[in-house]
Write a structure and sequence with these properties.
It contains 20 helices and 17 strands. The chain is an alpha/beta fold. The chain folds into 3 domains: 242 residues, 2-enoyl-CoA Hydratase, Chain A, domain 1 (Alpha-Beta Complex), CATH 3.90.226.10; 194 residues, 2-enoyl-CoA Hydratase, Chain A, domain 1, CATH 3.90.226.10; 37 residues, no CATH class. Strands 10, 11, 12, 13, 14, 15, 16 and 17 form an 8-stranded mixed β-sheet that branches. α12 runs parallel beside α14. The radius of gyration is 27 Å and the shape is elongated.
């Protein structure tokens, strides 16, 4: 075979690999409204940057007639490319080949690309669209999943791991995506569950659809499994690109910076009136974040889940910042089980990847209720406390209004190593609100007043006295728990200066194998 023939052979092999499962399989796939694996890769990456590896690999199974079903790539495309000029590694299941099912060879390809990502300090992205384990290969396929899981765990906190669910994801296949840092699903197209509707019906008698059991809306709003539910594949892929812009390449790098024309000395005049005059009135904490952030842009994560706390990324003077904020517009911003878990995991991600934390506090306490107590709010709330206390990145807290009880301690207080703690004059820092405190402290005195009118007048006087003395930021400032009480319109200026002063912060936890978070 001469050189020309060898080149022709290469071209034929490449064409065969690019054909996936063949024209009919590709047509069926696209008829369902889905992009092919290669289309997804091309849409995600910068044009012309994808370099495919292991294109010619095929499975070696000979049971159940599988020797007649050998396709180049073996149902997964792997390689590396660029997003906004930054290196990323990725794999994309090809559903047109044996339903994208995981074989021993496919697992080897995925593990290889994951190892390369860890070795070279770049994010790993998984575009998941697979029918699950390849049944014909038995335990070899299951072992392949476990090999991937091990890498998910060992790489956690080393390089960012991002997953997209673009089709079915069931059984053991769900564990790799959930072990990654962020998970994006597509509405009406992607599904995740341990056991599908048919098994649920057989075992429990419950009738449930795929969408109700494991659809994107279910996992982004009820279970908290997914971080985002995108309306289309294109929207999901664009969202992933934007998410990566806030995240460093690995745990040894600082957060990325972007140029901005938004002045670092810009006043936020709207914030002077954002807190309502009465403590019972809600307001949207995102108004505060957007007023302060560069170009008034906030990239929210898990916007539909546990809405009493808000998490996401913004930029301050070009630098990426992680935001954790109580949301007074939902459950008064009280901490409950779900929001504690949501925030704790985000705090740990930011700490793992050197992303500074801005905490905005307006919290009346932990959400009361039998369901909360029996559901373990004590241990779940402690996870958020643990995450903040463990974090060594720059941590800045701003108290806008309520900071009551144990929730004050949990929300990145000075006592658990917050670097700088600021408060607006509207801040109320106390063990509890004035009404509750008065009813406990002066219970006997109030009970001794026979006239209801006189009793309520005395209660109002005592409430005002307590509020003026304790429900202010000044007592905490006297004790050094608040570093500075600032005018709301100065918030952007103060925060930018604060984070810049902390850029060279060095802190560490005591040497240990790992701590024992209350799981």
């Amino acid at each position: 075979m001469n050189n020309e023939q060898k080149l022709r052979q290469l071209d034929e092999m490449n064409a065969k690999a690019l054909a996936g499962g063949g024209d009919k399989a590709v047509q069926r796939h696209k008829a369902s409204g889905k992009m092919t694996a290669r289309e997804r890769v091309e849409y995600l990456l910068d044009p012309g940057t994808f370099r495919e590896l292991d294109r010619f690999r095929v499975h070696d199974c000979t049971d159940f007639g599988m020797e007649k079903k050998r396709f180049l790539t073996d149902a997964v495309i792997t390689g590396y490319g660029r997003i906004d000029g930054r290196l990323v590694y990725l794999f994309a299941h090809d559903f047109t080949i044996i339903g994208g099912s995981l074989s021993k060879v496919q697992a080897q390809k995925i593990c290889k690309i994951m190892d390369m990502a860890a070795k070279n300090g770049a994010p790993i992205i998984g575009l998941n669209d697979s029918g699950g384990a390849r049944i014909q290969e038995g335990v070899a396929s299951l072992g392949g999943y476990a090999d991937i899981f091990l890498r998910n765990v060992s790489m956690s906190g080393v390089v960012p791991q991002l997953s997209m669910i673009l089709g079915p994801c069931a059984g053991g296949a769900v564990y790799s995506p959930i072990l990654t840092d962020f998970l994006i699903m597509v509405q009406k197209q992607s599904y995740m569950f341990i056991t599908g509707p048919d098994v649920v019906k057989t075992v429990t008698g419950e009738d449930v659809t795929k969408e109700e059991l494991g659809g994107a809306d279910t996992h982004s709003s009820k279970s908290g499994v997914a971080h985002f539910a995108a309306p289309s594949e294109e929207a999901a892929l664009s969202l992933l690109r934007e998410l990566l812009s806030y995240v460093p390449q690995n745990n040894m790098e600082e957060t990325p910076r972007q140029n901005t024309d938004d002045s670092s000395t810009r006043l936020c005049s709207t914030l002077n009136d954002v807190v309502p005059p009465t403590a019972e009135q809600p307001y949207d904490i995102k108004d505060v974040i957007e007023a302060v952030a560069d170009d008034r842009t906030f990239f929210e994560i898990q916007p539909d889940y546990a809405q009493n706390i808000v998490i996401g990324f913004c930029r301050l003077n070009g630098k990426s910042i992680g935001v954790v904020a109580n949301q007074p517009a939902h459950l008064a911003g009280a901490l409950d089980i779900n929001c504690s878990l949501k925030a704790a995991r985000f705090v740990r991600f930011c700490d793992a990847f050197n992303i500074p934390l801005w905490v905005i506090e307006d919290v009346p306490g932990f959400l009361p209720g039998v369901d909360q107590e029996l559901g373990g709010i004590i241990k779940h709330g402690a996870k958020l406390l643990y995450a903040f206390a463990e974090a060594t990145v720059p941590k800045v807290t701003l108290i806008t209004r309520k900071a009551y009880g144990g929730a004050y301690c949990v929300m990145n207080s000075k006592h658990i190593r917050a670097d700088l703690n600021f408060a607006w004059p509207t801040a109320e820092i106390a063990v509890m609100g004035g009404q509750g405190a008065v009813n406990i402290i002066h219970r006997r005195a109030l009970a001794g007043i026979e006239s209801e009118e006189e009793r309520e007048a005395e209660r109002a006087r005592l409430f005002e006295e307590y509020s003026d003395t304790f429900c202010t930021p000044f007592r905490a400032a006297e004790l050094g728990y608040i570093d500075e009480i600032i005018s709301p319109d100065q918030t952007r200026i103060v925060l930018i200066d604060a984070f810049e002063s902390l850029e060279n912060k060095r802190d560490q936890n005591p040497p240990k194998k790992h701590g024992n978070m209350p799981l």
